Known about the structure:
- The chain is mainly beta.
- Helices cover 6% and strands 41% of the residues.
- It is built from four helices and 59 strands.
- A hairpin with a 2-residue loop joins strand 51 and strand 52.
- Helix 3 (758-769) runs antiparallel to helix 4 (776-792).
- It is globular, with a radius of gyration of 28 Å.
- The relative contact order is 0.08.
Amino acid sequence: MFKKPSKLLAALSLGTAMLFGARTTNAQCGYFTGDGCPMTNYSNYGVTSTGAATLEYDNLVSSFHTSISRDYLGVYRIWGEKAAFDGTDLLVPTEINSVNFPGLTGRILKASVGSNQGVNTQIIVLTTDGLFAWGTPGGVVNDAVAPNTTPQKLQATGGDPATGLPAGIAPGQVKMIFTAYQTLAITTCDGNVYMLSNLASGTPRGDGSTGQTSWALVQDAATNTPLTGVVAVRGYSNRLVALRNDNTLYTWGFNVWLGNGTAITFSAPKAVQMTLPAGETGNTIKMIGLTGTSNFATYFVLYENGHLYGLGNNAQRQIGDWTVTNRNTWVQPRYPNAAGTAAGAVMNDILWVSPQEHNNGVGATNVINSAYQVYNWGSNSGYMLGRPVDDNVTYYNPGIPASFAPKVLAVETGGHTTMLAQACTQNYGYVGHRVQGSMGNGDASEVWETALTFATAGVQICGATTVPQILTGGSGTTSTTGSYCNGSSLTLSGIPAGGTWAVVSGSATIAGNRLTFTGTGAGTVEISYTASTADCPNAVATKTFTVGDCKMNSVAGTIWNDANGNASLDGAEAGIDNDLWVNLVAPDGTVAGSAKVAADGTYSIAIVQENTAAGNYSVIVTNGERPVGAPLASATAPNGDYGYTGTSVGGVANTGNRSGVIEIGALSGAVTAVDFGISNDPAVLPVKFGFVAAEIFNNQLKVKWNTTSELNNSYFEVEASVDGTHFISIGKVDSKAANGMSAETLEYEFTKDASAGVVVAGIALLVAGAGLFKTRRARYAMMAMAVGIIVFAAGCNKNRRDALPEGKVYVRIAQVDKDGTKSYSKVVAVVKR
C-alpha cells in the first residue's frame, strides 16, 4: 500500500517552509514577492512534495561532474567541473553571486546546467536582471547566443537584449528552466514554452522551424497554435516532454515515443499529445521526466498515488522492468523479488523520481519510495549507482545499493554520480566518479567512489533539509570580498526553536541570539546550533563565516513596547521583537541592509563605507525581510494588531511620527538610538484595526474594514499599490466615531468603479518589475500611474469587464488624526470575484 511520508519526517523536511511562512518575503527558501508565478513554492521538493503545478524539480541539479543547489535561505551554490566564472573548476560549493561571478548581476532566481560527458558544460542562470550563461560555449545554447566562457546575457534572435529572455517575458514571469546538452526550455507562468536548441536540424524547437540562434514558441501539432497551460517541462538532449494543467502530456524533438503502441517517432517538430498509462484514468500526475542514451529517449511519469511508469528505449535497463526490451506502451518498473534475483511487485509507492537528464549519453534512474529508501537501475557508469561493476556491458535492474540506508529526503541522478539528502546528516551523500571538485570536498583528485560517502560538504537543500537550520538576519558583508566585518553583529534564528548556540572556533561571542564578530584581521568563525527532532536527537548544524576588518557605517536602535504611548523609552518599558525586521534604505529608495529584530527588541545594521551613498538614508520597519536592492518607501503594520506609537531618536520623543519610518540623513559612522515604539493597547493607539479586505466584483473595487477602537481620529484614506510598496490615495472616508473617539467596533466600506484599465496596470507593473525604470522617482511615477489607471479609467469604458492581472493590486488604510498624523493598517491583496 502506498503510504504518505510520516509526520515526523515531513516535519523535519518542511520545517523551513513552516518557519518562513510566518515571514512574508523570505518564504519558501528565498522567494520574494514578485519574483515569480503566483503560488510559487520553492520548498515543494523531495519526498514531501505534492502538486504538479508548484513542484520544484531543480533545488539540486547535477550534470556530468557539475552540481548546483538551492538551500533553505534561497542561496544558490555551484561546484565541480568548469563551474567557475572563467571556466575553471570549483572544488567547494561556491555561492552564485556577482562577487564570485563577475559579469553576473541581479538576485538569483533559478539555475541549471547541461553537459556532454564533461566535454561541453554550460551553466544557465536566471536573475532578476535576466538570463545568463557561462562555461563551454555550445554546451546548452549555440555559440552565437552565448559566445563567452564568462557570465553573459543570452543574445538570441527574437529575444530582449536587456534581459536575454524571449521578447515580452520578464524574469519574474519564468516558472521553470530546463537544460540539457544542446537544449534549453523555458516555461512561463502563463503556461507557454520557449526553446533554444543547438541541434542543426531544429527538430527540438517545437514550432516546426529550423535555427539554432532564435527563440521558438512551442506549438501544438494538432492545432498549429502555441502549446498552453504547461506546468512542467523536462527532457533529455534534444527531446522534451511537457505536462499541462489538464493532466495531459505532450512530447516533441528527436526520436520520441508517444505511448500509443506505435514504433518510435523519429521526428516530432511540434508538440504531439501522448497516450497516458492505461488504468490511471482520473488519477493526477505529479512528476514527469526523461533519460536515455545518446540518441534515444526513455520517459517516466509518476502519479500522486505513487504509481510509476516508464516508456521508450530500454537498452541500458533504464525503464526498470527487468528487461532490455524497448517499450512503446507504458510499463511499471518492478522491485526485486524476495531473493533479489527477479522482478517482483510493481512500483506503486514512489515519492520521488530522478531520471538522469542533464548529461548526454547515460540512462539511469533513482527513486525514493514510501519507506524513504532509494532504489536505482540502469547504467552504473563511473559507479554512479553504487553498484559493484562499472563497464559498458553490465546494466542493472532495480535494487538497493549496499551502501544506501533509508530516511532519504531527496535524490538527484547526475551524469556520473548520484547525490542525496539523508535525514540527520549535514553533508550530502555522494557516489560515483569524483574528479575536478565534483564532490565539493576541496579535492580535485580523481577517485571512483564505489560506495555512498558523506565526506563531502555541508549542503542543505530547500525542501529537503536534514539537520537543524541556522538562519541569520542582518548585513555586514563587503562587496569586494564577501567577508563579514569584525565588530558587526547578526541576529540568529534556529529551526527547530529552543536549541543551543555555541561558538566552535574563531573570535566571536553569542549573547542570546545575537552573534558578534570580535576579532581583528582576516579569519573564520564557526558556530553550531544543537537541537532535537523526533528523528534526530541532539542533531548539530554548523555554519562558518569568513571575517575581516572593514570600515563601517551603522545604525542601531530598539523596537520597544510603548505601554503609555508617549514615544519615550521609559525604564519600565521593555524591548520587543514582534517578529519585525528593520531596513536601512539608501537615498535612491532601495534597501541597503536588513536585520531581523533580536529577542530583546534591539537591531543593528552595518554597511561598509565604500558602499555608502551620498544623500539621506531612512530606517523603515517591516513585518518581513526585504532583499537588498529592492525598492522600499513605506513601513508595514506590525504583527499581532500592534501599531506604531511614535519614534525616539537620540532620546528625543516624537509622538507625531507613527509611520514606522525615520529619516536619519547622511550616514556616517555609527548612528545609535534610532527607536520605534509599538503597542497593541487601544488606550494608546489612535486606531486599532480589525479586518481589512478588498475585492473587485461586477466592475467595482470594494474595500471593507473595521476598527475596534478609535482615539482622536479624523478620517481614513484608502490607498492602493501595484507592488505593495508604493501607495497612492484613491479615496477618503470620514470617521464614524463621535468626536473621533470610540471604544466600539465600527464598520467601514469604500467603493470605486474599476471596470477598465486593470490589464494595462498589470502590464505597467511588469515593465517596472523588469527594471526599465531605474530611478526612485521614475519607479514611483510608474506605480502611481498604474494604480491611477485601475481606479480612475473605468469611466471611459464602463461596459467592459477586464480580468484582474496576475500582478496583484494591493490596498491599505491610512488613518489620519485630527492633527494630520497618519498610521496604517496591514496591506491586503485585492481579490477578483
